[in-house]
């Protein structure tokens, strides 16, 4: 039974050209998470980032479900942009974002909620991917991720190396920090976590592993170069700017 004194939860789902069958997969995960959190209202916000192959029949069916919002952003701007737009519609006291296919399942979301319940000093929770997850990645992505781990340790915090797992949770009070990020692509999370670390905001992690059914896409060299430039802008150039300010 849902109770009014329990904090609501908003789940933001960035969406860009999802694989066939995504609608049914999403409905399954919605039912599953609702069953695991029966005492809470869970809001689902699908933030479409300029997808070009969405079946509008599926969209209409999803939009008719209770507590589901579909945001139709016509222009593809990047994951960071999609998440910022999605969180603007979030009504929950706890906000979680994860990918549209729930690559880590629903258990990490439940665990994040429990962490916020038990630790009032924690304001942000990130997913920390297992070694098995990285073994499944295409070679270019695996090398890029390992390089990013090393750079995170060097420029962010030696205890926070995995910034790129596609699942994060936060209390509503730090939503302005999310909205204050400028990066549109997937390394926007580096910018966000850097901001939180600099402000001394309490951060915890949950261990996550990928569902066996997940199909990993590869990145082109153009995308990898773009993200490397974005990372340098956020960490190295951003640090120099702050030192001079």
UniProtKB/TrEMBL annotation:
GO terms for molecular function: transferase activity. Keywords: Transferase. GO terms for biological process: protein N-linked glycosylation. The keyword Transferase applies. Residues 10-176 form the Glycosyltransferase 2-like domain. Pfam families: Glycos_transf_2. This is Glycosyl transferase family 2.
